[in-house]
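Retry 2 of 3 after timeout on previous attempt. Resubmitting structure tokens to design endpoint.
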């Protein structure tokens, strides 16, 4: 499948139904999902995948598969999500990486490509990431890409920082 984005070490392409098992290794894992209300069930993940397929069709973007080029391996997802934050439609960069591949800078590398895509290809001028204060690894990813905390919001019943990156 044709990649949407390429970085030094990664390819980002659309998710397919064949990615379900590799996605479930991430979303079904309690340690990985510790900052979420709970790990996803197979049914919840199936619904989440279907939402991405719908988003590709409607918007041309969504969460994409992250492929490690050197191993030709699916290691996570990263991409663009439309979120309602206090009644405002915002475009978010989100990411989830398989625990075996944490700590090698893959999330910030993939996220940077998504921010660049949103600014340069989609013409956006403001992007966000919604991150729970306790999720220090994710906050580091945002900070590595230069995002700044704008405010704290109750989002889906949990406090989140709204990290923002803008382009003039
Ligand atoms: C957040 C996440 C995507 C970061 O991915 P990554 O590719 O490991 O990112 P990085 O390599 O830049 O590491 C980011 C930070 O994670 C922490 N970290 C690194 N290795 C780690 C490990 N083995 N275990 C726990 N935390 C670790 C470090 O604080 C690191 O910051 P540092 O580089 O300044 O030391 C990953 O931890 C993850 O998938 N978490 C679960 C899903 C999630 O919470 N997504 C974000 C929702 S807002």
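Retry 2 succeeded. Sequence:
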């Amino acid at each position: 499948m044709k990649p949407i984005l390429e970085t030094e070490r990664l390819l980002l392409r659309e998710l397919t139904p064949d990615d379900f098992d590799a996605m479930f290794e991430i979303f079904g894992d309690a340690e990985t999902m510790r900052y979420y209300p709970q790990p996803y069930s197979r049914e919840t993940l199936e619904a989440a995948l279907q939402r991405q397929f719908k988003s590709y069709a409607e918007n041309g973007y969504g969460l994409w598969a992250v492929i490690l080029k050197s191993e030709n391996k699916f290691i996570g997802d990263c991409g663009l999500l439309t979120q309602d934050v206090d009644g405002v439609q915002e475009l978010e960069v989100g990411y989830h990486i398989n625990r075996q591949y944490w700590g090698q800078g893959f999330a910030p590398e993939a996220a940077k490509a998504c921010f660049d895509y949103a600014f340069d290809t989609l013409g956006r001028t403001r992007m966000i990431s919604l991150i729970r204060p306790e999720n220090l690894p994710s906050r580091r990813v945002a900070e590595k890409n230069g995002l700044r905390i704008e405010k704290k919001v109750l989002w889906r019943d949990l406090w989140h920082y709204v990290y923002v990156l803008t382009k003039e």
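Attempt log closed. The pocket of coenzyme A is lined by residues 32, 35, 95-97, 102-108, 131, 135-138, 140-141 (CB under 6 Å).
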